[in-house]
Amino acid sequence: MRVVSGTRKGKQLKAVPGHSTRPTTDKVKEAIFNMVGPYFEGGVCLDLFAGSGGLGIEALSRGADKAIFVDRDGKAIQTIHENVKICEFEDQSEIFRNDAERALKAILKRELTFHRIFLDPPYKKQQLLKLLEFIQAEDLLEEDGLIICEHGSEIVLPPIVGQLVQRKQEKYGMIAITIYERQ
């Protein structure tokens, strides 16, 4: 695993030890960022179910101002800290050990909104629709923001969730990427 492009291109990232997480492959990560515009002019991103932190770190490398990383696994949190340090993004990162729903409720209290939200939950415990509905209802996505969902290719997400409209969907073997934008 490595940073694919941007200011930290080529930096090797550590994987979370064990089998509790499934890292996004470099090929899929590159495809995601090609779909959402390869580089960013600032903005804050949220990497929910962050695992090793690869998606949020990639966003920082490509120009995001700040990334908030959330995962409930202690080993994942430790790995994110290590990867953020390797890439020298400590000042642009916030890392929280929490489950997704509690983290989103805590974010609400801070009145934050996001330019990019990465949702990569465990495939077997699919909760993407519930998360999309919450994000939409609580207005956590900026007007020009995108939500990037990584999920099993057998999962079919609805074309519209409130004000969120599916912009694109691509399949890469057993993995699918679905991107939503605010209408």
TrEMBL record:
Keyword list, A-Z: Methyltransferase, Transferase
Disordered, as annotated region: 1-22
InterPro entries recorded: RNA_MeTrfase_RsmD, SAM-dependent_MTases_sf
Pfam families with a match to the protein in the record: Cons_hypoth95
CDD domains reported for this sequence: AdoMet_MTases
Gene3D superfamilies: Vaccinia Virus protein VP39
UniProt xrefs under NCBIfam families: 16S rRNA (guanine(966)-N(2))-methyltransferase RsmD
Designated name of the protein: 16S rRNA (Guanine(966)-N(2))-methyltransferase RsmD
Organism of provenance: Cytobacillus eiseniae
